[in-house]
Amino acid sequence: QSHCADLFHFDLPWNPSRIEQRNGRIDRTLQTAPEVRCHYFYFRQRPEDSVLKILVRKVETIRSEHVSLAPVLDARIGKLLDNGIRRNGVQRLALDIDAVDGDADKVGVVKAELEEARERNEPLRKQLDQLRRINEESMAALRFDSVQFHDALSCALEMLHAEPLRRIDPPSGLDVETWAFPALDRQAGADASWAVTMDALRPPRRPEQKPWEWRRESPVRPIVFQDPRRLDDRTVHLHLEHRVVKRLLGRFVAQGFVHDQLSRACVLVTEATEPRVVLLGRLSLFGEGASRLHDEILAVTARWKPRTSDKPLQPFAAGRAADAATVELLEQAFGQQAGRDVPKAAREQFANQAPFDVADLQVQLDQRADAAGKEAIAMLSDRGEREAEAMVALLERQRMRIREEQDKRDKPQQFLPNLFTAEETKQLRADQLAWERRLRAIDDELKSEPDRIRRSFKARLTRVEPLGVVYLWPQAG
Asked: How far apart are CA 228 and CA 236, in angstroms?
């Protein structure tokens, strides 16, 4: 779909649906060309080719009128061509093929099956709507933001002493923001394992190419963060599950405070009228196999003052106006530091007092983490229960559909003479055996899967750790 808009049939199968399937290799969703062309070789001087001409016309018939009857037409045309094409019978054979259509009995069976398929489409549409809602809820729960995603990747690259993502012009025909990704495997002193990770950003390797030659000759492709709405192998779409992204974000999350100029204590200039302090902490819940079930950043805020006695800092109450206003000041200050500086004396005072301030606020952080942890555990338990119930419903629907299909296949009228070929009948028998095996497996899964799902959402370890302390210094000093 990305490169080809012309298909040439070197030979034609006797099966009209097979011809249409070949054409479908390029005539499909995401095809970039406005028109595709399917070509057939037809020699006027060869009488046998008149049969091929009829076959091609049947393809159009299947598409325009009898798309639902393709199996019936295929079987009847195949039977006419069992003995090949004989020159002395070409005209008669062409007329017989041209006259092929589904008889009333077989047409009725196929139409009944199609009607059942249409009825099944309605639950499918509902499932698609449900999946869209789940996707929207997941985006809201993760608070995923494409700009923050891009910035986090750039920060992770800078921690590797590489250039951040750089915006470039998109390839011709694409209307989407495009970025250049640095070749991490070619940097001086680079980790050798990055060469394998970066393979996901290179063009596909030719079969005869050696891996080292491919890496040397193949540049890293530009990346995009949005769906380009078409197939295009000139770019790579980065997402949360991409191997390059997972490695960069893993490094960013695990080592964000130990590289370069990042520190666990910093000072930001704000529009506040008095100094304030924010202790940031992370609450993490882990399940079976140390799987991370929940991550949450907590903030404890307080009005800051120089320590003149043993009296500790008094945190703002959670959810109160002063607490929310301090967090908002913190978020605004991150992007407004250009040209702003904190007096040296203030920085030294903050540095000397930071351990005491953290100790004062740590008690409140632990209390908030305990409350947030209980809420998260309840949320996970509720989600595990809903997932388990959904799995039971899914397995029961699957069992019901299999049994309905078995009942339908057991009806004598489904096996009308000449409706199915020997191979198709053999496949039906194999399907029935597979359905029996699946039904036995479903009975076992109904007993085991709900409990397994509930266990996967059960928190077995809670961890709270302070991430850093941020001082908010008034612009007026």
From this structure: 10
Token pair 């309840």: residue: 378
Q: Which helix (H) or strand (E) holds 401?
A: helix 344-410
The angle formed by the CA atoms of residues 76, 78 and 79, to the nearest 5 degrees, is 65
Give 61: exposed, middle or buried? Use CB within 10 Å, 0-12, 13-18, 19+. Answer: middle
Return phi, psi of residue 277, to 5°: -135, 145
CB of 220 closer than 8 Å to CB of 202: yes
Q: What is the CA radius of gyration of the chain?
A: 33
For the segment 390-402, what is each residue's pLDDT rounded down to a tens digit?
Answer: 999 999 999 999 9
Write down the residue that tokens 């998260």 correspond to: 376
Whether residue 225 contacts residue 124, with contact meaning beta carbons closer than 8 Å, is answered with no
- What are φ and ψ of residue 247, in 5° steps? -70, -45
CB atoms within 10 A of CB 103: 11
Burial class (CB in 10 A: 0-12, 13-18, 19+), 456: middle
CA separation for the pair 94, 116 (Å, rounded): 35
Contact 354, 469 (CB under 8 A): yes
Instruction: Note whether 384 and 74 are within 8 A (CB).
Output: no
Site of tokens 């001086």: 188
pLDDT at position 408 over 80:
no
Instruction: Find out whether 450 and 385 touch, Cβ atoms under 8 Å.
Output: no
In whole angstroms, give the CA distance from residue 473 to residue 477: 7
Q: Residue 458 in contact with residue 287, Cβ under 8 Å? A: yes
* Residue with tokens 């119930």, as numbered in its chain: 389
Element (H, E) at 466: strand 461-474
Classify residue 13 by its DSSP letter.
Answer: -
Amino acid symbol at 298: L
More confident residue, 52 or 393: 393
What is the rounded distance in angstroms from the CA atom of residue 20 to the CA atom of residue 356? 76
CA 89 to chain centre: 56
Q: Out of 86-100, 177-191, 312-326, which region has the weakest mean confidence (pLDDT)?
A: 86-100
β-strands 292-303, 276-286: how paired? Answer: antiparallel
Residues 6+ apart with CB under 8 A from 423: none
**What pLDDT, on the 0 to 100 scale, is given for residue 115?**
60
Residue with tokens 């000449």: 418
E strand or H helix that includes residue 297: strand 292-303
Token pair recorded at residue 367: 């209390």
Calculate the CA 19 to chain-centre distance: 33
**More confident site: 255 or 95:** 95
The reported pTM is: 0.59
Annotate 166-196 with b (16+ C-beta within 10 A) or e (fewer).
eeeebeeebebebbebbbbbeeeebeeebbe
248 with 238: CB under 8 angstroms?
A: no
Residue 388 one-letter amino acid: A
